[in-house]
Structures are given as structure tokens and as C-alpha cells.
Amino acid sequence: MTSLTENAGYPLAPSKSYQVCTRCIMDTVADQSISFDDDGLCRHCLRYDKLVSARHLRGDLGRDALQALVECIKAAGQGREYDCIIGVSGGVDSTYVAWLVKQHGLRPLAVHFDNGWNSELATKNIERVLCNIKIDLHTHVVDWDEFRDLQLAFLKASTPDGEIPTDHAIGALLWKEATSRGIKYIISGMNFATESISVPEWSYGHSDWRYIKDIHRRFGSVKLKTYPHFSLAYLCYANVVRGVRMVSILNYVDYNKERAKEILCNSLGWKDYGGKHHESIYTRFYQGYVLPRKFGIDKRYGHLSDLINASQISRSQALAEMKRPPYPEDLQQQDLAYVSKKLRLSPQQFEDIMRAPIKSFRSYRNLYEPVQLLRNTVNGLRKYHFYPR
What is the top-level taxon of the source organism (predicted)? Predict the structure, then answer.
């Protein structure tokens, strides 16, 4: 039996006997560590069923919990210019969060991490939306030589974690802006309904500064003087000592991505940019070109399976989407030329990177076990309502 990845025209990774979930589209090629129960449900769907009631509140229950949370945020922010921080990228999730917090009368400061890869449309979306709903913006612009060096180091490390330099820095920036300004709440666009599937082999390192440092030590050449970062000890300090909380506000509402887009387009002049996270040129290229061609990873498996579990699309719609390329071939070639030039890589140098033997984060120093312990601890606190969802 062939896999969905093969249908999309990408090389197959060696796999065990092929099996696909009976509910979503995750299979033994997309996730080689996947397992199934006797009814053919994959471990991702079983995890979703187990956690959804603790992570996602719907209907009246969600409205009541959100109102109580909003009152806590307002009370904690009394006397300050802002009562919460939101991260903005120009994408649908973070933009909807900006609209939602204003609907509830909160006073957010928007924080944007400019890593040099914003699409023109993403930049316009940020400017247009924040101007329309009157939210102040703080933008952190990277030192390009440092950031380019770190991105190149991850490409040379040959792991599928090439987006970690951006994802880690965004987290660091939000935590440090909150602690330095005395703001107790960070409102995140992460949500369980459309982002619940997690496969460490697809991407790891969001909170692991030791892993990032080791990659840079081995493959980098420019000292990281200004790159935003945080350790697990700082994360504990921000939460325990300073009392800062990260809140996934979309877990308190009936978040539907297509309805959110309609609201943003019709009310705020926001414009759609296509695929998930395609507001960034590098993310579009990394997810749509590098990951599938080099690592055999197509994150649409996870994104579409999440939407199936959230009843926002049907399985047949997801299967039809997987028969298309991740994004148009002509745009992939444009991005290839643009990214190579911006990273100062010749065509041969980029080809050498694409053909280098594949490694994983386990090939480098890391803090995987402590990170998982911290993650499980926070999820346990959420279950018993000691930490916001």
C-alpha cells in the first residue's frame, strides 16, 4: 500500500508495515514511531480524546472560564500601561488573538520578532490590524549576522529543527518583555483544537537552550551577543518568582480557523497568505521544500489531522489536500533562489546541505528529559486548574 507522502510526489522513508489511522490521516510514514489501538485509532487521536476536555473549554463553560480569566488579567494589570502581552506574526492565530483580547476589554502590548523573513503581506497585516484596533507594537529586530549564522548552523547540523532559532527567540522575547515590564500574563495563539499533534522527530528544541548552544558551538562562527534566549531555570524564575503565566486564550473559545479568517478579513482588513505559517518566507520554504525533500516530513499531516479531530474539515478533504504540493512549484523555486542568496549559499553549497546525512536532536547535547518533565508538570497543573489553559 502506498502512503499519502508518496502521492504528493516526495521520497518515502523506510517504514514498518504500512498503516494509517482510521480517523485522521497520520500514518506509519509520517510518524515512524506511531502506534494504533485495536480499532485502528492512532496514538495522536487517543491523546487528543484524553486531553481535550482538560485543555479546551467550549460553549458556556468556556465563556464563564474566559470571563473569570479576563477579570484576573485586568486586576493584575491595574495601574500599569498594559495588562497583557501578545505575540504577533501577521498570521491568522495571533491576529485573531489580538482581535479577541480587545473584544474583552484588555490592554495588550503587541510584540513582534522581526527575523528578516517577513513576507510583505505579513508586515502589512500587522500594521493594518494593530492600527485598526489601536494596539501598541514593540518590534525586536534581530542582528542579521548573528541570526543568519544560527540559521546556517541548524542547516549544517542536518536536523529537521531549522525553525527552532525563530521559535525559541519568540518565546524568549515574550517572557523577557513580560518580566521586565511587570506584566503577569502572556496571551498565546497556541491552541489545542488545531495544534495538538506533537512529534519530537519533526521539530524539537523550542525550550532547549542547551541544544541550540551545542548546534551553534559546532557549526556557528559569529558570537551570539543579542540573540534572545532563555534557560529552563529562567522559565522557572519567570513563572514561580515573578508569577508570569502563559495563557492559550483560544482554548477558552470555540475557535474555528475559517470563521476566524472571515472575521479578520471583513472587520480588520486582514488578508489571507495561504498555508499555515506561510506569513514567513523562510517558514514557507523550510516547511514546504526542505522538510519534505530532505527529511520526508510533511507537517500538513499533523495540521490537517488536528482539523479533523476538531471537526473543522472532513477526512476526505484532508486526503484531497495531501495530493497537492505543499505550495506552488514556481514559488518554491523563487524561494529557493531568494533563501540561498540571503543566506549567502551557492547552489552547490545548498545542494550539499540537502544531501548531507540526516541527524536528530539526539545527535547533540540536549535537555530532552527535563523539558518533557517540565511540559508534563505544566499539563498536570492545567488539569487541576492550577495553571491557565
Answer: Bacteria
* pLDDT given at position 363: 96
Q: CA nearest 21: which of 56, 54, 46? A: 46
Rounded Cα distance between 129 and 113, Å, is 17
Cell of 220: 556557528
CATH homologous superfamily, domain 56-296+328-371: HUPs (3.40.50.620)
pLDDT tens digits along 133-157: 999 999 999 999 999 999 999 999 9
What confidence tier does 276 reach under pLDDT thresholds 50, 70, 90? low
Query: How much is the pLDDT for 277?
Result: 67
C-alpha cell at 241: 518568582
Task: Judge whether 184 and 77 are in contact, CB under 8 Å.
Answer: yes
Instruction: Find residue 113's DSSP bridge partners.
Output: 140
For residue 291, how many other CB atoms are within 10 A of its CB? 21
Domain range summary for the chain, segments of one domain joined by +: 56-296+328-371
Helical spans, DSSP H, in 33-189: 43-55, 59-76, 92-103, 120-132, 144-157, 164-181
Mean pLDDT of all residues in 117-130: 90
Cα–Cα distance between 42 and 351 in angstroms, integer? 35
- This prediction has a pTM of 0.90
What's the chain's average pLDDT?
91
Please, which pLDDT band fits residue 2 given cuts at 50, 70 and 90?
very low
Residue identified by cell 549559499 is 345
What does the DSSP assignment read for 165-223? HHHHHHHHHHHHHHHHHT--EEEE---TTTS----TTT---TT-HHHHHHHHHHH--S-
**Whole-number Å distance between alpha carbons of 90 and 266:** 16
CA distance linking residue 285 with residue 362, whole number of Å = 24
Residues 6+ apart with CB under 8 A from 138: 109, 110, 111, 112, 177
User: 3-state SS string over 143-175?
Assistant: CHHHHHHHHHHHHHHCCCCCCHHHHHHHHHHHH
Torsion of CA 267, 248, 278, 103, to 10 degrees: 10
What H or E segment, with its residue span, contains residue 113?
A: strand 108-114
- Grid coordinates representing 238? 519567570
Q: Which residues contact 184 (CB under 8 A, 6 or more apart)?
A: 73, 76, 77, 83, 84, 178, 243, 244, 245
